[in-house]
TrEMBL record:
PPR repeats mapped onto the chain: 227-261, 262-296, 385-419, 420-454, 455-489, 595-629, 630-664, 665-699, 700-734, 804-838, 839-873, 942-976
Keyword entries, A-Z: Repeat
Residue spans of biased composition, Acidic residues class: 1047-1065
UniProt xrefs under NCBIfam families: PPR
Organism, as annotated: Stylosanthes scabra
The keyword Repeat is assigned to this record: yes
Protein name per Swiss-Prot or TrEMBL: PROP1-like PPR domain-containing protein
Bias (Low complexity) ranges: 138-154
Pfam family, one: PPR
Amino acid sequence: MNISNPACSHFPGYFIRDGCGGQSLHHRHSLRHQPVSPPLPTVVRPARLLSAATAVSPSDRVLTASTVASSLLSLEVPASPHPSVEDIFFVSPPSSSSSSFSSNFVANVFTKPHYCSHLPTPITKSHFPLIHCHSKTLSLPTNSPSSSSSSSSLNDRRTKKKKGYGGNLPSVLKSLEYSVDVEATLGSFSENLSPKEITVILREQGRWERALKVFEWFKSQEGYVPNVIHYNVVLRALGKAQRWDQLRLLWIEMAKKGVLPTNNTYSMLVDVYGKAGLVKEALLWIKHMRLRGFFPDEVTMSTVVKVLKDVGEFDMADGFYKDWCDGRVELDDLDLDSLAITAMNGSRSMPISFKHFLSTELFKTGGRNILNSSIKVFGPQKPRLTSTFNTLIDLYGKAGRLKDAAEVFANMLRSGVAMDTITFNTMIFICGSHGNLMEAESLLNKMEEKGISPDTKTYNILLSLYANVGNIDAALCCYRRIRDVGLFPDDVTHRALLGVLCSKNMVQDVEALIDEMEKSFVSVDEHSLPDIIEMYIKEGALDKANCLLQKFLMNGEPSSSICAAIMDAFAEKGHWLEAENVFYRERGVPGQRRDVIEYNVLVKAYGKGKLYDKAVSLFRGMKNHGTWPDDCTYNSLIQMFSGADLVDQARDLMDEMQEMGFKPHCQTFSAVIACYARLSQLSDAVSVYQEMLRAGVKPNEVVYGSLINGFAEYGSHEEALRYFNMMEESGLSANLVVLTSLLKSYGKVGNLEGVKTIYERMQNLEGGLDLVACNSMISLFADLGLVSEAKMAFENLREKGWADGISYVTMMYLYKDMGRIDEAFEIAEEMKLLGLLRDCVSYNKVLVCYATHGQLYECAELIHEMISKKIMPNDGTMKVLFTVLKKGGFPIEAVVQLESSLKEGKPYARQAAITSLYSLVGMHDLALKSVQTFLESEVDLDSFAYNVAIYAYGSAGEINKALNTYMKMQDKHLEPDIVTQINLVGCYGKAGMVEGVKRIFTQLRFGEIEPCESLFKAIIDGYKVCKRKDLVELVSQEMKLTLNLEENPEIESNTESENADEIGSDCEVRERN
């Protein structure tokens, strides 16, 4: 792979939080609780969330390289010559007029540049082009001596994260960390601790209980002066732990002691409430501070914007920011009650109504009591902090308002606010996620020119962006670049790269990456496990998938959602046993109960494998193992049984589900109704429909469509029309499926006007008629005997290139039924030439047409073609074959014998019948090759097989082999039957062995062989070949006397014709069912 020209792939996006341009790559293993069959529940693999909004207006294109460059360059101090815009971005520079910069920037910032293929990539020589990978196998970086310095620098950076404290603080913190008696430990240091040191001690406590206990001890000490900073630290600890009652008590205590909150206090409260999902309550803190005379400072404003941004309230966040800039924050125009935000992450707080929250002690206390005084009006405000600009850029990027994001970026530059890594990470992500990777790469170059070093997150963002557009070479290049610049890949890096390689089934590269990770003592993240296993399953390497899973399980227990995702990967490909093994794996904790999500996926796996008894057994045993079924369990089972037409079991489960307090989904009701409709139990279908209405579940188009189609098939046109009218009255629009069913209903009652009305309505739908609707029209015209209309519709489909196998078969049968055999044969030939014969259904249709037309050789060719394509003839095929044998003059006794053998399932019965057809039409090479196969087998053959072999050898002129086969048959102690005698007479006649024919005739004449017409005819044919006209006449007279035949040569041909019609009708019924 050549990575000299990076571009991108479809892979996990980088979720930007706190305006940092991507802090973690989220792999969410969430099982969408969908039914088993049909449709079966689908497990969503580790999802990767993109942070930028998906909807972008046409005017809001993407930030261009030229405008970003102009923003940066126009504000640089011209102390030294700078590279031109063309040199940096390879695009035309903007206007040099600084006065027009702002307007030009806003007007042109989202005008996408026209890149040409001959232009170089906007990556400087210090970047990716230095790295080349020409092998298709991933060549990964290894630890080299030169990397030691990088490793030490990384360790330095890590140690800097934990602050070093002077004085007694290290010993105090260490003592507290290992001490159980907090009071005794603090008592030995209390006299020497300053307020700042107390702040540090409180902040360093890892658990809220310990922080509160330490704070209580300090407050109990004589001489302690209440400090708002100390309260802020403890309030934050309580808020992060979502201990709202303790927070309330501490807030009231703070007010009683006269400790006034500051902007930092309110900013902290907004932050912890917002992160807990209590967004409405977070905003009420701003209301509280305004009522007490505080105006949010920049940090508080930025916190509010971030809270609203994180829950997708982009317009509200933008409005709050602009109000703050205007010097007013009243929240009067914010609809707080519309914020339907519930607590996240299992919050232990209950949602509080607006009125109740305002009436609590929280809002009656705290701060300066100036509720009735006028609120001070502040002047215009401007942000000055880098973090604020980062938050605003991220806000507008996620909202898809790219022009606003670019304007904030420009304002940041004009205001002289220092940019940091987060700023560039955010801008790189916004540009790249909206399709402009060249701008993202240009920003990376500019980032380094400004002296801001990219971090691992920067390269992770680029790696994910490249992965999203399928450019694996560039993604690999980013991975190498991380090490080249002295950084180290993190979990996000490995997860992203493994994900994109797995999505492309690059097995060798995935294995090379895993080996490299293991050499660096880095384990595969559990969120990557389902992707890797799914890749192995797609490649058919189940052993590798199981080996990887077992290796992972030895090192730890994956979460239930991960295991469910792995089970689903197996289930999707029908590997129910492997899914079962994951379910019954040995757990890390003895007695640990299985999550309901795992049960639901195993139910799906059993449903895929049609193991309905196992699914029921699993379901019934759930409660015994401490896991109760949820609505997904019931919905899946009900839909699984409905799809298998086990409607009684489905109905019983639906009743049980409702008794358990669960409401079936609309899809569940729909599946049961559709099942009843398929089984023509329409009264039961209507009963479930009425039950659905009573349960308060609104029917959708699928429900009405099932009822309309059911009544249409049954011939109840009025009922079908009634439900159609009910559907439209409920506000649902009829789709093509529903209209097609109604069309069928009109056709069954012969209402041509109704057919035309519905047909016109179908044509007026958006998108017009689809192939299914067109085929339905052709079929309807055919049923009504409207040949010209059907032909016109078919020709229209053929001109558009839409006609498929169903279209051709419908026309072929129409022509056949109307007696236009030649035209039917032409359609059959065209189907064959177009390659529309892909399964038994289509082959059988054409076989019937050939058989009706008397094209016996073509029938044999078609069956041979089926076998060559590994499409095994089914029962319908064999029935057509037996009809062809009869039409070709094959002895009726031989046909009956073959049919009986096939029905009894005797070895080689199907092959013997096909061999007979080959011999009948003169395809002797194929017939003899087939005979050799079953004669040389080690299976004990029945008489029919030897009879076919004798017939095949005799037809091919190999009389000696035919007679040897007869002798072998006798050696096996198989007595010759009437079919054997018929075939022997044929051999004797072809060999000129008159005595042999005479011997069998003598046995027939004296009653040693039961007389039959076929044997008489065979003897007559034998004498004809031997040119013994005298004996021909003798046998003919004997046949008339013995069988009492009346000369009626049409009887046989009529019988054969009826057989052909019968098989054609039978095949059609089979395919419809």
